[in-house]
Amino acid sequence: MTKKKVLSSIIAICLVSFLVTGCKGLLRYQEDDNESENELIEEGDNSSPKIDYDNKIKISMRNPSTLNPILNMDETVDRALKIVFSFLVDFNENDEPVPNLAKSWSLAEGGTVVDIKLDTSIKWHDGESLKADDVIYTLKTIQEAENSPYKPCVKNILSYTASSEDTVTIVYKEPFSGYAHGLYFPVIPSHIEDLSFNPIGTGPYALESFSNNRNMLLKNNNSYFKGSPKIEEIEVIFSPDTESDLNSFDQGLIDVVSTDVIDWEKYAKNKKSNINEYMTLNYDYIGINFNKPALQEVKTRQALLYASNREYILEKIYLYHGQVVDVPVSPSSWLYNQDLVMYESNVDKAKELLEGNTLELNLLVNKDNRQRMSVASALQKMYKDVGITLNIIEASEEEFMEKVQSRQFDLFLGGWNLSIIPDLSFAFHSSYGQAATNYGNYSNEQMDSILREAFNARSNEELREEYLKMQTHFSEQLPYISLYFRTAALLTNEKIKGDINPHHMNQYQNIHMWYIN
């Protein structure tokens, strides 16, 4: 039986993503696929598509231990609860914070105080109005929770008060450029004592019924503040694992599935499905041990990058589901430097930088991750062409982490599921070296200064300026050999139409604009 997948900390400052992809037992989950008996209701004029408002769609998630989004730690449950609960702020396609329940916010006191104005015309599913007390209650619940994926949202908060019914004032310990990103948390109602299985939210769908170990039904919220959802009902089927989700979609038992498996096309091969690909924050790289004298030379690191044919790796191993990058900033982010000159595969340039010297290096790899083992083999052949002998050191997932954390490597193949909060200090600031998450012990005063200035930036303009500096410095110094950001996909039944626009923070973004035709 596969292990239950635990929700990654959504706003966590960092999260290592050394994925296990060994063989797993195939568990099929079956559900009666009864056709809807609802009649087609035509809406709109003759120029509009015929929309079946009475029909429903089916999605899946794991059997929940709670439906309180602050306390839930399962990724699939979180995904479904985003249909029920709304977040204080949202993100656009470039990962910039945009208004949602909060219609505006402003900084004061040198960047340590933020005043948040709420849209109090928004109603909870039970008809009560959204109030500042709800945000205060949510923040308190996050702080007091033993476990919550939203803990990092309150890490830098000193205090918070309801200045009025529509205004929340938050005081921070120090100025932090990612304060608005940290406002991305679901708001829960202060007037409901227990949300465990009574999820009253402000989202596009409200709970209609719940059947333990089986399913829950969601009904469209016609008072939703972004517009009445067009699909009337969503059935959320409880399934045991990812394989079951994909097989259920393949058999037509569910209508939507989110996946990052490499060969997702095979689940849409019947041409009755649509593939909606989107960029994730899963960043893969080659880690470098700066305690090794040979790797302290920037020319050596540049040679490693020139010798790495990353486009080939992305195409042959990841089926082009990603984008090659030179820096740990998502190419879809508003902070990404589109003008940065990219390194391209160049064997002659790599040889020139090595100046005829030969080099022998050990590359640590998680042997349970089949894709990364394939990447290691490809790199071994590429490096041989420039005079570098690459010894592949295979380790189990547990051994891999132990060796990385104790710096027992020359190079390692790793990945971060990066936070949407813009702070890369955990990986590259010297204060995180030795026993912390700067695994390569990279130490550079200029990088330290840029990261600190970026953290304390008081405006988006200042933050972007520092991030441009950081990317230029990164590209020149190469504290990592960047590989690529990977994509994922939302697979949908062909009957689902509308603005299907998944985002890595919310795959069901704009679900209120979907319709069945």
Question: Main traits of this protein?
Answer:
single chain; 517 residues; alpha+beta; Dipeptide-binding Protein, domain 1; Dipeptide-binding Protein, domain 3; four-stranded mixed β-sheet; 11 helices; 19 strands; globular
What does this structure look like?
It is built from eleven helices and 19 strands. The protein is globular. Mean pLDDT is 89; it is low at 1-53. A hairpin with a 5-residue loop joins strand 2 and strand 3 (97-99). By secondary structure, the chain is α+β, with helices and mostly antiparallel strands. Among the domains are: 89-183, Dipeptide-binding Protein, Domain 1 (Dipeptide-binding Protein, domain 1, Alpha-Beta Complex), CATH 3.90.76; 280-487, Dipeptide-binding Protein, domain 3, CATH 3.10.105. It starts with 55 loop residues before the first strand and ends with a strand.
